[in-house]
Design goal:
Blueprint (H helix, E strand, L loop, with lengths): L13 E5 L2 E7 L9 E8 L6 E2 L7 H16 L6 H19 L3
Antiparallel strand pairs: 1-2, 2-3, 3-4
Helix pairs in contact: 1-2
Length: 103
Amino acid sequence: MTSTKQPILSRPAAIVGAGRVVATLWNDGDQQDSGKYRFTFFRQSSRTGRVRQSFRPADLHDLVKLCQAVAALVAEDTSIPSPQQQALTDLADKLDAITRTRI
């Protein structure tokens, strides 16, 4: 008799969104690690609820806002080295300033 191991499906550490664009974040590290994050971005149709990983020009503002949210969220992780935390916080602040002054 052989046993086959089922893959362990991990749950995202966070799900954040801006407009129709959503990101799922996973932290593959442990507390001793420097927070090995990975994330995916996708677009959800408000009409059908379907998701896609292709974007439209109208999504660019939401993509920048989503990048700001992801940077701010990851910067809160205390297992990340302080210089990287500060760089992510600065990036989040700059992206926030850009999206507030809509181009």
